[in-house]
Amino acid sequence: MEETTSRSSSKVVAVVGGGLVGALNACFFAKRGFQVELFEAREDIRRARHMKGRSINLALSHRGRQALQHVGMEEKIVSQGIPMNARMIHSPSGKLSSIPYGKKGQFILSVDRANLNRELLTEAETYPNMQLNFDHKLQDWSAETGLMTFARSDGSVQEIQADLIVGCDGAFSAIRKQFLRRSRFNYSQTYIPHGYMELTMPPVHGEFAMEPNYLHIWPRNTFMMIALPNLDKTFTCTLFMPFEEFEKITTGEEVMEFFHRYFPDTIPLIGADALKRDYFRLPAQAMVSVKCSPYHIGDKCVLMGDAAHAVVPFYGQGMNAGFEDCVVFDEMMEQFKEDLSVVLPEYTRVRVPDDHAIADLAMYNYVEMRAHVNSRWFLFRKLLDNFLYAIMPKTIIPLYTMVTFTRTPYHEAVERWHWQNKVINGGLLLGATGAALGVACVLIKILPTSNKLAGPAEKTVEPTDGGRGGVERHLPSIKPVEAVKR
Ligand SMILES: Cc1cc2nc3c(=O)[nH]c(=O)nc-3n(C[C@H](O)[C@H](O)[C@H](O)COP(=O)(O)OP(=O)(O)OC[C@H]3O[C@@H](n4cnc5c(N)ncnc54)[C@H](O)[C@@H]3O)c2cc1C
Ligand SMILES: COc1ccc2c(c1)CN(c1nc(C(=O)N(C)c3cc(Cl)c(F)cc3C(=O)O)c(Cl)s1)C2
């Protein structure tokens, strides 16, 4: 447990939502000395056996690690994660190609969601100024009075007052409902046509079935699967596919046909029987993207995590962005001496552009991956990124590097990416032009030329290709033009 400061012990902060962001945020506020009341609709997951309906593991990267470091949790969480140094691309033929995430020592971590949530709740509980309230589902609250109404599973209702309400209650936030009733509150949500389903790849003879320190990817344009390793030597495979495709597969045989066609190398590793069984265990889950602004109401309430910005998972940044929300808010609390009337509007001003940028990036990557990313293209793009980064490390930084391995504000990373694309495209254009000119000069030198002025631009050149009709038959003959007599 960290030391708390004494400045804010009089004020009560209610954190609504005890998921990943709420549990971490409770630590941030408790560390500052606030009296923190965390309210979570579910039972204490440390007593529940299994959390259904969420991704089982997640990729933790720099932004999330920095947040954990602020509350002294980074080492513990990293020690319980599995480093993924590179992507392993699986081609349809089963060919494997690995692409490192960055320089040596640059890796992301596969962490177990439920374990991370448990560890954060346990850390929160170590603060003497912390109260965890499970089985408290927020029904309503007032922005004017700060009064919240919670329903309990026994049917009772509890009313609680707070000086600051922090909405960390996820993509379908009840706290955000009040925002929707207010003028000038912007809100958008998009469900994508793809769903996801998780399948487990068991160990083989007690060992990982595939190389463990990789994020395994099977990019198949419309379909994609990825696999992240777990400490129990299983892999959690996440299959992404349009719901209409999921719905077409209704029998075990159809599951096998599908996997034989798109992911043949995974069949012996997941197991045919397990595939046919697990495919029908849970329905495919939906993915929603939520953007809103402002994130605050007066000096009374602020939204963080998925409650403020749910993103599609195609950058592995949702939790990392939510964790970074906590750091940014805390840095502002320090900067403005916990004056909430200044911190809350400043938090909206700074954080909305960044969270909207990562939401757009994740959606862009989804569209990209779905449109034309197969294993060859994915390999080419990542190798090109890494090559350009290696030869011009200060000029060309891959977008995923800025997103995953730095705390470059997301919107600045996007701006730089656009600028870099202009440089690269400009460079490629210049290169192509130079190459064309070079070819032209060579052709001028080697092609036979007549001594009269150029005839019509087009001139059929006698076939030199043995009559195969090669392209050279219609090359325009480029003739030196006689200098104009003055
Ligand atoms: C398939 C998939 C893969 C993902 N992979 C990654 C990844 O690799 N890396 C990454 O960074 N992110 C990833 N994410 C995103 C990540 O899961 C979310 O961004 C993260 O869980 C958000 O945390 P949160 O605490 O804001 O919301 P949640 O995790 O949704 O927690 C909200 C909490 O609030 C509680 N709650 C809800 N309503 C109420 C109420 N009315 N009263 C009280 N409590 C309430 C809920 O019970 C829950 O505990 C992935 C998401 C998906 C779907
Ligand atoms: C548990 O469920 C999930 C679901 C999706 C993801 C994760 C965990 C973790 N994800 C990460 N994505 C990046 C990334 O930057 N990009 C561009 C990628 C984007 C996609 Cl879709 C991909 F397949 C590989 C990369 C890659 O580069 O490896 C990381 Cl870096 S980690 C996506």
Automatic annotation (TrEMBL):
Ranges of residues in domain FAD-binding: 13-327
Segment Disordered: which positions? 455-474
Q: How does it sit in the membrane?
A: Multi-pass membrane protein
Provide one Gene Ontology cellular component.
mitochondrial outer membrane
Q: Please state the Enzyme Commission number of this protein.
A: 1.14.13.9
Q: Does the keyword Mitochondrion apply?
A: yes
- The protein's role, per its UniProt record: Catalyzes the hydroxylation of L-kynurenine (L-Kyn) to form 3-hydroxy-L-kynurenine (L-3OHKyn). Required for synthesis of quinolinic acid, a neurotoxic NMDA receptor antagonist and potential endogenous inhibitor of NMDA receptor signaling in axonal targeting, synaptogenesis and apoptosis during brain development. Quinolinic acid may also affect NMDA receptor signaling in pancreatic beta cells, osteoblasts, myocardial cells, and the gastrointestinal tract.
List this protein's GO terms for biological process: 'de novo' NAD+ biosynthetic process from L-tryptophan; anthranilate metabolic process; kynurenine metabolic process; L-tryptophan catabolic process; quinolinate biosynthetic process
Q: Where are the transmembrane segments?
A: 12-30
List keywords of the entry alphabetically.
Answer: FAD, Flavoprotein, Membrane, Mitochondrion, Mitochondrion outer membrane, Monooxygenase, NADP, Oxidoreductase, Pyridine nucleotide biosynthesis, Transmembrane, Transmembrane helix
The cellular location(s) given in this protein's UniProt record come to:
Mitochondrion outer membrane
Q: Can you state which reaction this protein catalyses?
A: L-kynurenine + NADPH + O2 + H(+) = 3-hydroxy-L-kynurenine + NADP(+) + H2O
Write down the InterPro entries for this protein, in alphabetical order: FAD-bd (IPR002938), FAD/NAD-bd_sf (IPR036188), Kynurenine_monooxygenase (IPR027545)
Q: Which Pfam families match?
A: FAD_binding_3
Q: Which cofactor does it need?
A: FAD
Q: What is this protein called?
A: Kynurenine 3-monooxygenase
Q: Name one GO molecular function term.
A: kynurenine 3-monooxygenase activity
Q: Does the keyword Mitochondrion apply?
A: yes
Q: Which residues form a coiled coil?
A: none
- Which protein family is it in? Belongs to the aromatic-ring hydroxylase family. KMO subfamily.
Endpoints of the signal sequence: none
Q: In which pathway does it act?
A: Cofactor biosynthesis; NAD(+) biosynthesis; quinolinate from L-kynurenine: step 1/3
Q: Whose protein is this, by species?
A: Takifugu bimaculatus
